[in-house]
Amino acid sequence: MAFRKDIIDMLATPRSASSLARELGLRRGEIEADLGHAIRSARAAGHAVVVEPAKCRKCGFVFDERTLTKPGKCPECRSTWLYEPLISIKAP
After folding, report:
1. Which residues in the chain land under pLDDT 50?
2. 51 forms bridges with which residues in the sheet?
């Protein structure tokens, strides 16, 4: 398991869940729970959490900010051609 403080430190620059998982040697699904907890901990500590939501490359549909990993398909056009959400944490 990844240490959540390490995840917070790594998110000083915008990154996707896939890039975090790759750097930590995990699968994308394994990092999702730790990433959610790290974001909640960062907000509780007064850090600013910025989530650039996932977006469909084909029709431009913007997903909800709560989606931290890449969705499977766009609900509008059913395309799988999607940008991943980018997450960053700014220190207070």
Report:
1. 1
2. 87
